[in-house]
């Protein structure tokens, strides 16, 4: 339990309590705002009050409080959403790290001493596992959803079109795939012996969406945007064959 909790909280130890606090604060502000509006206008006249606010100068002085409060409320809302997106990225990085570690275990038994394609295949598996959690909207530093797709990207899109029940636009999927490939760094280490752990570490370079929140939670990159590294490290026992070369004796035809 403690190991799983450590994996879940790695690199987001402060984000979780901040997100919980912001959720409670945002909920309290929303409830208080609704109660005050209902007390002044009557619950059945709230919609009418919003419609007539811009038509008459009557009670305009009361709108000053809204003007002063609304920016803080929107900033608080953006902070809550940004923390939630960070935790979504963290969830994806954990899933991605497990996918990379499991793939490394399989390829470790194929190749002598773990040399060759083990790291490459683990990186590919981790990046493709992260695609559903990647950003499909932004375009990073010249990267876009247009252009020539790689063979792996085309295979991923073809598999999605064949097996997915809910079809997404190819451009959206390509943008998510490129974001996962460009923003996710994957490293695998081990094992020294046949039954040692294989460790997969993924680092997702999360880009902030809200300009005001980035300086608070992230660091400024060379492109002027704000980023935060979301890290997940998973260790799984290799359980490879106990022989001299550590190979299982079978091969896989895989792209």
Give a written overview of the molecule.
Strand 3 (219-220) and strand 4 (226-237) form a beta hairpin. A 4-stranded antiparallel beta sheet has the order 1-2-4-3. The protein has helices at residues 2-9, 15-41, 46-52, 63-108, 118-130, 151-163, 170-183, 214-217; strands at 184-189, 197-207, 219-220, 226-237. The chain contains 8 helices and 4 strands. The longest helix has 46 residues, at 63-108. The chain has one domain. The chain has 255 residues and is α+β, with helices and mostly antiparallel strands.
Brief overview:
52% of the residues lie in helices and 12% in strands. It is built from eight helices and four strands.
What layout of secondary structure does this protein have?
Layout: H1 2-9, H2 15-41, H3 46-52, H4 63-108, H5 118-130, H6 151-163, H7 170-183, E1 184-189, E2 197-207, H8 214-217, E3 219-220, E4 226-237
Antiparallel strand pairs: 1-2, 2-4, 3-4
Helix pairs in contact: 2-4, 4-5
Structural class: alpha+beta
Distance between the termini: 36 Å
Strand content: 5-15%
Shape: elongated
The percent range for helix content is: 40-55%
In total, how many domains does the architecture comprise? 1
N-to-C order of helices and strands: HHHHHHHEEHEE
Task: List the strand order in the largest sheet.
Answer: 1-2-4-3
Spans of at least 5 consecutive residues whose pLDDT stays below 50 are: 140-144
The tally of helices reads 8
Taking the sheet with the most strands, its summary is:
4 strands, antiparallel
Query: Mean pLDDT across all residues, rounded?
Result: 81
What value does the Rg take, in angstroms? 25 Å
- The strand count comes to 4
Keywords: Membrane, Transmembrane, Transmembrane helix
Transmembrane segments: 14-34, 60-81
């Amino acid at each position: 339990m403690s190991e799983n909790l450590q994996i879940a909280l790695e690199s987001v130890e402060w984000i979780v309590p901040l997100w919980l606090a912001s959720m409670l604060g945002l909920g309290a502000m929303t409830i208080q705002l609704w109660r005050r509006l209902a007390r002044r206008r009557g619950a059945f006249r709230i919609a009418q009050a919003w419609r007539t606010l811009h038509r008459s100068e009557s009670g305009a002085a009361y709108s000053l409080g809204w003007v002063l409060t609304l920016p803080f409320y929107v900033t608080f809302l953006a902070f809550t959403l940004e923390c939630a997106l960070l935790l979504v990225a963290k969830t994806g990085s954990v899933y991605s790290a497990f996918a990379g570690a499991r793939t490394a275990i399989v390829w470790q038994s194929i190749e002598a001493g773990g040399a060759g394609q083990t790291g490459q295949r683990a990186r590919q598996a981790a990046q493709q596992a992260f695609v559903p959690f990647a950003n499909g909207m932004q375009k990073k530093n010249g990267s876009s959803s247009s252009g020539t797709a790689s063979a792996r990207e085309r295979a991923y899109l073809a598999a999605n079109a064949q097996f997915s029940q809910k079809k997404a636009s190819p451009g959206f999927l390509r943008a998510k795939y490129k974001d996962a490939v460009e923003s996710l760094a994957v490293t695998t280490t081990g094992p020294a012996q046949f039954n040692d752990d294989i460790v997969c570490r993924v680092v997702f370079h999360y880009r902030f969406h809200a300009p005001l929140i980035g300086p608070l939670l992230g660091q400024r990159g060379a492109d002027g945007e704000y980023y935060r590294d979301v890290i997940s490290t998973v260790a799984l026992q290799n359980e490879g064959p106990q022989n001299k070369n550590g190979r299982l004796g079978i091969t896989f035809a895989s792209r």
